[in-house]
Each structure stands twice: as C-alpha cells, then as structure tokens.
C-alpha cells in the first residue's frame, strides 16, 4: 500500500491575497476554489510538477495564520527559481550554498515560511 502526502493546509488571514501571491508571484497552479457549504472556502494550489498541493481557505482548520510548519520545494535550477521569484516581486533570500544543497528562502504575506532546495548531482534537483 502506498501512502502519499498530497495536501498540506497553510493557514492564511486573507484567502484572496494568499491565492494571488501563490499563483501570480510564486507560480503555483490554481486547481480549485469553491465554497462547498456555508462557512467553508476550499482553495487548492499546486506547485508545477508537484504531487502535493497546498490548501488555503476559510473554515478549514483552527491554526492561526502564518503558523504552517516550514515547507520546502525542490527544483532542478536554483538560479532560475531565484530569478523567477525575484522578478515576480517575492522577497526572496540570496542563494545559500551548503554541502548538502543550495537553498533560497521566502515567506508568504502571513509569514508562512518556505525553503526552495536544489540538490547538485540529483536528477531534476
């Protein structure tokens, strides 16, 4: 039996602002945005090529905005990822080169923290 992590909830204070950030600045795909019932708004966003999405919305969980655990994306080209985020207006760190990988860091408007990793020598990062 496979156990696949396919959805992570990211608590935000303003769903439209967060959706705009993730779609138009970071480049996630907007998969779903519905109100299945009163008091619930479910927005699913997926990084390009990822098998795991994030969910933002209203009435999904009780976590305060900005308190998602540190989240990490993996890319095949850290320079291109850095350039894309910077060009789209994301406040992104400089590239941090470590023995085990190269990293950049950013946060969404609520302070949810993200790392982007490139692993040299590994196909597709």
UniProtKB/TrEMBL annotation:
Protein name per its UniProtKB record: VOC family protein
PANTHER family from the UniProt entry: GLYOXALASE/BLEOMYCIN RESISTANCE PROTEIN/DIOXYGENASE (PTHR36437), GLYOXALASE_BLEOMYCIN RESISTANCE PROTEIN_DIOXYGENASE (PTHR36437:SF2)
InterPro entries in alphabetical order: Glyas_Bleomycin-R_OHBP_Dase, Glyas_Fos-R_dOase_dom, VOC_core
Organism of provenance: Arthrobacter humicola
Membrane-traversing stretches: none
Domain VOC: 4-119
């Amino acid at each position: 039996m496979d156990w696949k992590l396919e959805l992570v909830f990211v608590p935000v204070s303003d769903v439209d602002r967060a959706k705009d950030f993730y779609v138009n600045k970071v480049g996630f795909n907007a998969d779903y945005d519905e109100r299945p019932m009163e008091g619930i708004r479910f927005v699913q966003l997926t990084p390009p090529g990822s098998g795991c999405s994030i969910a933002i919305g209203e009435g999904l969980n009780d976590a305060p905005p900005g308190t998602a655990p540190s989240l990490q994306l993996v890319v095949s080209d850290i320079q291109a990822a850095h350039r894309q985020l910077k060009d789209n207006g994301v406040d992104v760190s400089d590239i941090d080169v470590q023995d085990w990988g190269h990293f950049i860091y950013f946060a969404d408007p609520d302070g949810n923290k993200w790392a982007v990793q490139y692993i040299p020598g590994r196909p597709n990062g």
